[in-house]
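Lecture notes, part 5. Sequence design as translation. It can be helpful to think of inverse folding as translation between two languages: the language of shapes and the language of residues. The source text, in structure tokens, appears below.
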């Protein structure tokens, strides 16, 4: 087994999300080598060629179609493979199809690489992160999902629009399931250190409860709206993948709401869901306890219970 090359990534699955992620990572300059793997080798080869032809406008690197043998020294293995979400379908509707696909993929990964970080992007990401952790046997800090990183970006974007302020100055998290039971953690939200409600009033907004409900609903329904209009979402999640990879490759120790197996936080055990975590070159260093109201904590537990019920169904069969 080769030592991991921090500047090499593998992407498994070259559909909309995998190919958009490959493009975003090429543009980032983070990696000197990216290998693309797909059940249809021709699709992987086509995407690699298409991106390669633009390399004279970017930074030198290799991007190519390969096989599982080529991932042996990859530091990050990004799994986007799986059935896509269709209009009217929830992420949890994809469970059995994509768990079945993971039961094929994960053993092929572990046969060739046991020292990299396994990042799950396919949906339902929390169920598949748990599945990947259990099937791979990797240490839990090195298996996590993209979780609510994109949902959190959507929340910051919408709050920035609502308040007429740079969304990069907004600090707030979506937590829990990447799906219908996710929670906006309003209790810990702030704009450059100013509590959210106070900042809203500075900007002339006083109907806090109505605005919070509307914005949280908009975040939860964003993917459904996009899928209804263009059949798939891929640019936002590709930029989320890039952001997580930056934190790993640069050992930034950034705090990102990735999906990982919980071990007692808020009384939640043996379920993968999203909570803020410190992310660096070894994966997850630790989760970060954030202030939650009693209502938010109960909602988080309900989100965990929803996921636990799905896991019980999947792993009984």
């Amino acid at each position: 087994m080769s030592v991991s090359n921090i500047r090499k990534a593998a992407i498994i699955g070259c559909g909309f999300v995998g190919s958009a992620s490959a493009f975003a990572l090429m543009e980032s300059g983070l990696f000197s080598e990216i290998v693309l793997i797909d059940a249809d080798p021709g699709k992987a080869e086509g995407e690699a060629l298409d991106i390669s032809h633009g390399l004279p406008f970017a930074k030198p690197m290799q991007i190519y179609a390969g096989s599982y043998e080529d991932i042996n020294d990859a530091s990050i293995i990004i799994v986007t493979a799986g059935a896509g979400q269709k209009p009217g379908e929830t992420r949890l509707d994809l469970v059995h199809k994509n768990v079945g696909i993971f039961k094929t993929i994960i053993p092929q990964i572990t046969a060739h690489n046991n020292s990299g970080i396994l990042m799950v992007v396919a949906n339902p990401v929390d169920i598949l992160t748990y599945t990947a952790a259990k099937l791979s046997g990797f240490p839990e800090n090195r298996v996590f999902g993209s979780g609510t990183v994109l949902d959190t970006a959507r929340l910051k974007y919408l709050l920035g629009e609502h308040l007429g302020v740079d969304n990069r100055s907004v600090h707030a998290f979506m937590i829990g399931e990447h799906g219908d039971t996710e929670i906006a953690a309003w209790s810990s939200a702030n704009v450059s250190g100013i509590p959210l409600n106070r900042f809203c009033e500075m900007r002339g907004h006083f109907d806090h409860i109505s605005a919070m409900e509307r914005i949280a609903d908009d975040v939860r329904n964003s993917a459904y709206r996009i899928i209804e209009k263009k059949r798939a979402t891929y640019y936002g999640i590709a930029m989320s993948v890039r952001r997580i990879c930056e934190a790993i490759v640069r050992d930034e120790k950034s705090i990102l709401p990735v999906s990982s197996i919980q071990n007692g936080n808020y009384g939640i055990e043996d379920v993968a869901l999203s909570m803020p975590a410190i992310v660096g070159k070894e994966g997850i260093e630790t989760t970060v306890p954030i202030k939650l109201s009693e209502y938010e904590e109960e909602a988080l537990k309900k989100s965990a219970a929803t996921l636990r019920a799905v896991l019980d169904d999947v792993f009984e069969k």
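The translated text above is only one of many valid answers, since several sequences can fold into similar shapes. The longest strand covers residues 5-12.
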